[in-house]
Amino acid sequence: MDTHKRTFLKTVSWRVVATFTTAGVTFLLTGRLDFAISVGVADSLVKFLIYYFHERLWSRTRFGQDRKPEYEI
């Protein structure tokens, strides 16, 4: 299971990439830099929290993970 620190750092790094993507697409569609920055920031604030809790929920399930044996000889 990931630590809270690792999940937090993954969240931050992903939000940086996603913010620039969102702002870039918004700018390409509208041609307005001020609007693109506003949308990018608002999007990041909301999705930052959603992503963090999404990762924490997934870290609680063993679905798709290999199980370690209870003991080894």
Provide a brief overview of the structure.
This protein has 73 residues and is an all-alpha fold.
Structural write-up:
By secondary structure, this protein is mainly α. It has one domain (4-59). It is 74% helix and 0% strand. The protein contains two helices and no strands. The chain has helices at residues 4-30, 33-59. α1 (4-30) runs antiparallel to α2 (33-59). The longest helix is centred in the N-terminal third of the chain and has 27 residues, at 4-30. The two termini are 24 Å apart. The model has no long low-confidence stretch (mean pLDDT 88).
Could you say which structural class the secondary elements and strand pairing correspond to?
mainly alpha
Shape: rod-shaped
Largest sheet: none
Averaged pLDDT: 88
| Number of helices, counting only DSSP H or I runs of 4 residues or more | 2
Low-confidence stretches: none
> Share of helix among residues?
over 70%
How many distinct beta strands? 0
Q: What is the CA-based Rg, rounded?
A: 18 Å
- Total count of domains: 1
- The amount of beta strand, in percent, is under 5%
Between the first and last Cα atoms, what is the distance in angstroms?
A: 24 Å
H/E topology pattern: HH
